Automatic annotation (TrEMBL):
Biological processes, Gene Ontology terms: methylation
Post-SET domain boundaries: 325-341
GO molecular function annotation: metal ion binding; methyltransferase activity
SET domain mapped to chain residues: 186-318
Compartment list: Chromosome
Pfam families listed in its UniProt record: SET
Name used for this protein in its record: SET domain
Species whose genome carries this gene: Musa troglodytarum
Keyword Transferase: yes
Keyword Methyltransferase: yes
Length: 345
């Protein structure tokens, strides 16, 4: 029988502490008494209302039409990539507290992306970079695109490489050549499917070519990525984990791989971790974005076509081999091969 406990001091303490707890600990606290149960229920409701923890322009809610009792997916939120080895991920992060205290109120408070690894310190001296026009990349030296391609087991094949201003440039966050550095600006929601699990859906009309979000997570060395992938494969077999480790290989014009980038959003990431695979390539295009002065590129998603409100956002993880063992694919496209791409493909 659940005992009764109360008092303003206990509730105040609970409002401060419970938002830091992962779901198992939150459930344990809720089982101790009615007062903590009420606070825990409120925390869960707030978490379900915004996966981004108030760190993006718009709340990104979880919706579960399956009714399986899991109101949200727990992970640590980062708006931009982090370097795992030099900046260890925090073990906890407040989520589900007083949303009014955490909410970003205007664009001026959005931080400019700072790459964890920088190069020569190059950057433009533009106070206001020239607007881009068709066939003209402006007067800013950072805005010139570099043609190339990349492929991976988790990212589509072939794209242009895009460059933007970086931390050593004179322009500010509203610069036209910092399009992908202001976080998620479109309205999105995370919806659960009985077969695919959570998926990212549009909550507004998104025009073709419009920036949607980047794939944020931990930058890993290849050795660490392979170690984690082996662990994830073991856990995924039991149905207890849905890994979000993405591997990108940037290619030279000759086709020889010259750079491998590993981004793990399994434990630390943003809402892009919920973008599901589609064997037909999906409705999102993937673009490698380099910031001037940074060595590591960022993977960003743009709408490959007009996307209507309520449509699921998907992209092609890569090419799957249906003859090999792997996780089943439920994309539902006419060209579905029945298996998700994996690192072995």
């Amino acid at each position: 029988m659940r005992r009764t406990c109360g008092g303003a001091d206990l509730r105040q303490w609970a409002e401060l502490v419970l938002p830091w707890l992962p779901p198992p600990d939150l459930a344990a606290a809720a089982s101790t008494c009615k007062a903590l149960s009420r606070v825990a229920k409120s925390v869960s409701s707030r978490r379900a209302s915004d996966a981004a923890r108030g760190l993006e322009r718009h709340p990104i809610p979880f919706l579960d039409p399956t009714g399986d009792g899991q109101p949200y997916s727990y992970f640590l939120y980062t708006r931009f990539p982090v370097l795992a080895l030099s900046s260890p991920a925090p073990s906890a992060q407040p989520w589900g507290g007083d949303s009014d205290k955490n909410r970003i109120l205007d664009a001026s408070s959005l931080a400019v992306f700072a790459s964890p690894i920088t190069g020569s310190g190059a950057g433009c001296g533009c106070n206001a970079c020239a607007p881009l026009a068709v066939g003209d990349y402006g007067r800013c030296p950072c805005s010139s695109p570099k043609m190339g391609s990349f492929s991976s087991s988790n990212a589509g094949n072939g794209t242009d490489l895009m460059t933007e201003c970086g931390t050593n440039c004179s322009c500010g966050v509203e610069c036209v050549n910092r399009l992908t550095q202001r976080g998620v600006s479109v309205k999105l929601r995370i919806v659960k499917d009985r077969n695919k699990g959570w998926g990212l859906h549009a909550a507004q009309f998104i025009h073709r070519g419009q920036f949607v979000c980047e794939y944020a997570g931990e930058f890993l060395t290849t050795e660490e990525a392979r170690t984690r992938q082996r662990t994830y494969d073991e856990l995924a077999c039991g149905g207890g984990l849905h890994p979000a480790l993405l591997v990108v290989r940037e290619h030279l014009p000759s086709g020889k791989a010259c750079l491998r980038v590993n981004i793990d959003a399994t434990k630390v990431g943003n809402i892009a971790r919920f973008v599901n695979h589609s064997c037909d390539g999906g409705n999102l295009s993937t673009v490698l974005v380099r910031n001037s002065g940074s060595l590591l590129p960022r993977l960003c998603f743009f709408a490959a076509k007009d996307v209507v409100d309520g449509e699921e956002l998907t992209f092609g993880y890569g090419v799957a081999d249906p003859t090999k063992q792997g996780r089943p694919c439920f994309c539902g496209s006419s060209c579905c091969v029945g298996r998700l791409p994996s690192e072995e493909t």
